[in-house]
Amino acid sequence: ERRKEFESNLQKAGLELETEDKKESEDGKIFFVKIHAPWEVLITYAEVLNIKVPIKENDIPPMVENPLDCVLFPLRLPEKVMHPEPDYFTAPFSKDKQELYLINDESTFFSPSMRNRIVNYILTRCPYGTEEGKKKFGIKRLLNNGTYTAAYPLHDCQYWKKASDPNCDSERYTLYMEWARFLRFYKEQPLVLIRKYYGEKIGIYFAWLGFYTEMLFLAAVVGLICFLYGLFTMDENMSSKEICDPAIGGEIIMCPLCDRDCEYWRLNTTCESSQYSHLFDNVATLFFAIFMGIWVTLFLEFWKRRQARLKYEWDLVDFEEEQQQLQLRPEYEAKCTQKKRNPITQEMEPYLPLTSQAVRFCISGATVLFWVSLIIASMIAVIVYRLAVYAAFASLMENTQTLQPISGLLTPQLATSVTASCLNFVIIMILNFFYERIAIWITDMEIPRTHMEYENRLTMKMFLFQFVNYYSSCFYVAFFKGKFVGYPGAYTYMFNRWRNEECDPAGCLIELTTQLTIVMAGKQIWGNIQEAIVPWICNWWGRRKARNNPENLYSRWEQDHDLQTFGALGLFYEYLEMVIQFGFITLFVASFPLAPLLALMNNILEIRVDSWKLTTQYRRPVAAKAHSIGVWQEILNGMAILSVVTNAFIVAFTSDMIPRLVYYYAYSENEDSPMSGYINNSLSVFQISDFPERNEPKENPENFVICR
């Protein structure tokens, strides 16, 4: 009944429908309804939607040639791919003044993405009857209640071959050949074509991702230089020379790292990790932290310029966040039964009473707080794991008789750190999986009024959660670990049971680096598997029966039906992934100068993975407009400010930069090598006879009198 009513209303709106019988379909179960939009409908709704169309070809002479063009030539795409049609002056369409527009051919005057926007506009507003005295309308509800199983615009051809119709532009094929293949990774992106085929919203995402990747190139080069500086000056580093020297580090006896079970140990057992720590903790790191503070500001400001330019080129300057975005969500209209008069338009509008709004906000706020505290609880659990396992590793890895470590690199600290980071990564992924579902459920429950409000609220909730989830362990290692240890005879304990852990003798920075590398690399690898391989397997499995059929039996609309859906939140997850990565390379970059390089390699892959899956694995999304990256811009600005603070704190509190400078200027005695004696100077002395019963090691075979 609903279908009948809906389809007759669509025909009244002027659309032409054509139904394919289920006998024709590949599995014999599905009816397909094909929709055609005739010229009359297109011009009527082009006026309603204020669509801009060409009135005259652009006759402004192009800019002066760029001298770098010959150098950049290998990165360029052919002109017909970059600018498939000439640039026009445009004006909003008006039905009465058709003679003013450049209408050469009615069938190609409106681009496919404009047509699918117009049809989608009609579909989302077409009524299908009254139920319980309320007018019901929109394809979205019909999909929710199972009247139809899917609604989607068609791709214009198969991605691996051109369409047989010579008039078809075969844009999907062009996009696949020139953009979505990994071998084109060094080429620029055909943004005009992406916008033409997928709409502005997806176009602006790829413009942003491409720009971010270009800017990362600079940061990656500087980061690599800083890392190489650390590598080449590794042998000249005075403090690790002293630690490794059997006459200095070998003679310094350190106090045990845990109670009762651990023995005294010699400082030179940490020789290798102190050398590695110099890779990341040197003067260049300080320079790089300052450089990244400037880079992040430049990135955001230059992006605003690029965005303003795109806005002008893509005719979005006077685009009010499309009526589509500001119109009430069908869910809002369905759930809000009370109406009140809008003081401006004088129309009756549905609204949520304040009491109901307040209750909903309280519930959602409480849920978000609960989940954030759950993350913090899981982080404390990982810390307890570190403390409990540390004693075990320490007693396993040290040889009682000689006090020599079993292997050079694997200090108990490092073993604990690596296993804890991996455990932490697994917990992050599990919590993420559950929270995504919860966040969508809470946002639905709040019943936001417009699509834009819905997206912004969901973005803030998801981002807040992911922020705490991904960065809390890094914040712990950077700012809290090893700061509350106490001293022999008066150690501090967690829950009065586990003794707080100390940093690696080489400093906490090397542990922060381990933590960052595992979480960041793990997330990127996992993200790419989830994005590319999962939809590919689903599609392969869905199409396995139909693949053997000839073309005429396995029609184009069925092929598209078997693809995955690129949901309303498709782009949301893409942005989220990139913004979290942006956090890793800005917030903690002082501890890991190679982070921008990792991110650059990931993004080069990311652009091609995203384009490949959009072109080949997903149904064509409905073209939507957007003139900016939206609320993400504010989030990036916030991160940029925070990153300046965290990097300053890392240099000040986590790295050994400041204690070394103090020694250099205030205590240094040897003029020829000012840093010699620093290690001895930085350790205090403890009389072993003062150990309380609880802390004293069970054995002291060499009868040491003092430990450091």
**Strand arrangement, major sheet:** 1-2
- Name the helicity range: 40-55%
Mean pLDDT: 85
Number of distinct beta strands:
16
**Approximate shape:** elongated
β-strand percent reads 5-15%
Provide the structure class: mainly alpha
First-last Cα distance: 85 Å
Radius of gyration: 32 Å
Transmembrane segments: 205-232, 283-303, 368-393, 413-435, 462-479, 579-600
Pfam families: Anoct_dimer, Anoctamin
GO molecular function: chloride channel activity; protein dimerization activity
Family: Belongs to the anoctamin family.
Plain-language structure description:
The chain has 708 residues and is mainly α. Among the domains are: 1-151, no CATH class; 341-447. Helices cover 55% and strands 7% of the residues. It contains 25 helices and 16 strands. It has a two-stranded antiparallel ribbon. It has a two-stranded antiparallel sheet with strand order 3-4. The radius of gyration is 32 Å and the shape is elongated. The chain starts with a helix and ends with a strand. The mean pLDDT is 85. Belongs to the anoctamin family. It is found in: Cell membrane; Membrane. It is a multi-pass membrane protein.
